[in-house]
Amino acid sequence: MIKGMFSKPENARLYWKEFMHQCADIGMGSLGIVSIISLFMGAVSTVQTAYQLVSPLIPKTTIAQIVRDTVILEFAPTLVSIVLAGVIGSKIASELGNMRVSEQIDALEIMGINTKTYLILPKIVAAMITIPMMVTLAMVLGIYGGRLAGSASGILSTDTFDMGLMQNFQPFNVLFALIKGYTFAFIISSISAYFGYYVKGGSLEIGRSSTRSVVVSCVLILLADYFLAAVLL
Question: Is the pTM of this model over 0.85?
Answer without folding.
Answer: yes
